[in-house]
């Protein structure tokens, strides 16, 4: 494993090429504290979207619960569209005992349908003990706690090629002004295209917006926008769009120009930086590591990353992730939820790689490399200022549907960012329609 280093004041050099994308050997921690009692003969079904290595690692975590309790836990993949999988099962009265949801919006939807069972006993106590108020509130509806953020994704990272930065004589920036006024402009002047954009994948554009908005407007305003307590025509939204236009409006700063930026999907944009070397930087989450490696980069050497620069007083920390909920009252379900909430279970998963936890009791040294340790630490250190992905909290027809809502409006704005007020009005209209 390569040693983690800091290059410049704000840059993260990514360590351990496979740590974010493949399992590594891990010695199990202490016996999980979540389970209790003898569940021999009890059979439970857990459903989540994970496949491949993620599925292997999660089933290894579940094996710890089976060992402790004697229960048998079967895993079933929902596929990428968790709602399409769960909808018919809920309708038929045959949901899985535990489901892992990719969006808080789904949690609210199912809670309103009485399709979820509130946490109780050790599960409720574990959530309160191991998670900050923000994460507790995220999984709650109407004062009842339903969800546990089981697996997090760090969405406040910009990846870059060190050789391109060296060629232009620039360092990773700390602030947005540094990014636009020095880093990107100097790269462009040196004949290096600053950014690969993943505009064909609309969710990446919502992530851009969320980072700029959180840093510029602050967490309280962010929450108000999520809940539509302020309109999308608010000055804070317009100013965020104006800030994005400082990059999106520079066609020469994007691989393939404006047209290429809108037509390039994720993860093709990653290969434009690593492999094709058409650009110096690409914005997206920690999972870029997998695509960079597939493109031939050596993560930690030729592929490095720095935190999303501060637009306002603080750099943003935006997190996505998957939320575990109980969908039945069968014997053993609350014990399993308690186990999933426990630091012991999540420490086991942390040691397997490709995982981040928002559990305050998971120690940094649980992770197999220093880069992941740094990412986990930034989530915990952000405290009450960390925020969950905005587009996944609003109604899915507005925030998470191809060809609709935020995705379409921001893609149009990427094509022509000359009128932020008009884009804000379109966002407000789409948000109102989705509600």
UniProtKB/TrEMBL annotation:
Q: Which superkingdom heads the taxonomic lineage of this protein's source?
A: Bacteria
Which is a Pfam family this sequence falls into?
Answer: SBP_bac_1
Keyword terms, alphabetized: Transport
InterPro entries the UniProt entry points to: Bact_solute-bd_prot1, SBP
The record's listing under PANTHER family reads: ARABINOSE-BINDING PROTEIN-RELATED, OSMOPROTECTIVE COMPOUNDS-BINDING PROTEIN GGTB
Q: Which family does it belong to?
A: Belongs to the bacterial solute-binding protein 1 family.
Q: What is this protein called?
A: Sugar ABC transporter substrate-binding protein
Native organism: Streptomonospora alba
Name the lineage: Bacteria, Bacillati, Actinomycetota, Actinomycetes, Streptosporangiales
């Amino acid at each position: 494993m390569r040693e983690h280093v800091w290059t410049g004041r704000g840059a993260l050099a990514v360590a351990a090429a496979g740590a974010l994308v493949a399992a590594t050997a891990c010695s199990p921690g202490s016996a999980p504290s979540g389970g209790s009692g003898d569940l021999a003969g009890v059979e439970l079904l857990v459903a989540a979207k994970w496949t491949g290595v993620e599925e292997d690692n999660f089933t290894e975590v579940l094996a710890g619960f089976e060992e402790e309790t004697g229960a048998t836990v079967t895993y079933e993949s929902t596929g990428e569209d968790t709602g399409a999988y769960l909808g018919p099962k809920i309708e038929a009265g045959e949901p899985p005992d535990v489901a892992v949801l990719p969006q808080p919006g789904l949690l609210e939807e199912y809670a309103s349908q009485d399709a979820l069972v509130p946490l109780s006993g050790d599960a409720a106590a574990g959530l309160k003990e191991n998670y900050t108020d923000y994460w507790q509130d995220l999984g709650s509806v109407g004062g009842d706690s339903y969800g546990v953020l089981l697996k997090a994704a760090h969405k406040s990272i910009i990846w870059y090629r060190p050789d391109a930065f060296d060629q232009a004589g620039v360092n990773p920036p700390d602030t947005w002004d540094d990014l636009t006024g020095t880093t990107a402009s100097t790269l462009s002047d040196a004949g290096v295209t600053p950014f690969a954009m993943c505009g064909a994948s609309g969710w990446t554009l919502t992530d851009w917006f969320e980072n700029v908005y959180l840093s510029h407007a602050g967490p309280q305003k962010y929450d108000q926008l999520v809940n539509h307590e302020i309109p999308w025509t608010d000055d804070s939204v317009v100013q965020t769009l104006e800030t994005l236009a400082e990059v999106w409006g520079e066609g020469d700063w994007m691989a393939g120009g404006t047209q290429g930026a809108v037509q390039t999907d994720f993860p093709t944009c990653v290969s434009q930086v690593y492999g094709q070397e058409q650009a110096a930087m690409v914005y997206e989450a920690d999972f870029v590591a997998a695509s960079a490696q597939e493109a031939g980069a050596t993560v930690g050497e030729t592929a490095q990353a720095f935190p999303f620069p501060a637009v306002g007083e603080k750099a943003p920390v935006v997190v996505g992730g998957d939320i575990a909920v109980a969908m039945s009252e069968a014997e053993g379900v609350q014990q399993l939820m308690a186990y999933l909430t426990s630091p012991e279970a999540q420490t086991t998963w942390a040691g397997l790689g490709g995982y981040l936890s928002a559990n305050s009791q998971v120690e940094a040294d649980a992770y197999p490399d220093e880069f992941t340790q740094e990412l986990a630490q930034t989530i915990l250190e952000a405290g009450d200022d960390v925020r969950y992905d905005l587009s996944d909290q609003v109604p899915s027809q507005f925030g998470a549907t191809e060809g609709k809502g935020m995705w379409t409006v921001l893609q149009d704005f990427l094509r022509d960012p000359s009128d932020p007020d008009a884009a804000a009005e379109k966002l407000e209209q789409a948000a109102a329609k989705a509600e």
